[in-house]
Amino acid sequence: xxxxxxxxxxxxxxxxxxxxxxxxxxxxxxxxxxxxxxxxxxxxxxxxxxxxxxxxxxxxxxxxxxxxxxxxxxxxxxxxxxxxxxxxxxxxxxxxxxxxxxxxxxxxxxxxxxxxxxxxxxxxxxxxxxxxxxxxxxxxxxxxxxxxxxxxxxxxxxxxxxxxxxxxxxxxxxxxxxxxxxxxxxxxxxxxxxxxxxxxxxxxxxxxxxxxxxxxxxxxxxxxxxxxxxxxxxxxxxxxxx
Length: 242
Prior knowledge:
By secondary structure, the chain is α/β, with parallel strands linked by helices. 44% of the residues lie in helices and 21% in strands. It has eight helices and seven strands. Strands 3-2-1-4-5-7-6 form a seven-stranded mixed beta sheet, sandwiched between helices. Helix 1 (15-37) packs across helix 4 and helix 6 (171-190) packs antiparallel against helix 7 (196-206).
């Protein structure tokens, strides 16, 4: 079961409200700082997600927790006719819309404010659904996954890209040092929100990964769930179907 870590421990706001506030605050700096923190490897991981999705030849794709639209934009390589990027944070979406406009992709990609736990779509609406680095921000993981299952078409693909924890020495120890001590310092130095990157680090360290997350997907009803560790296990791509 996922531990419900919140960004602002002294706030009475719900996790959902806190996450929205946090991403609205850091939206303009998020892309640049994210490249620094991940050493740019996250771009490579997203390309692998696109390759997996493209193999299913989807016509419609929903990218949940789309943020500034990085994955939604890359998913245009699948030749899908319609891609919807959904996020709680209007600040992040605004950055994404500017990127989409510059690339003249507005006819393919639509960015909408929405809640992953109450998706504004009919049952069986999408051929493929993706979530990159956002599933650990769900307030209620099971509810969010149930909604994803509901709007995914039968035989549709669901692909998650999320941080995970290396299990082999010395990578496990090195990851712990980096995420617990170095990443929060980088965040405090360069971010408007001094707490945000401590939260992102803590939430990543306690989120279920590997077989544990696959078991949760199976409980919801997804089938053929597989976990594909990336870069020594610091991230994992999950793929399942309905």
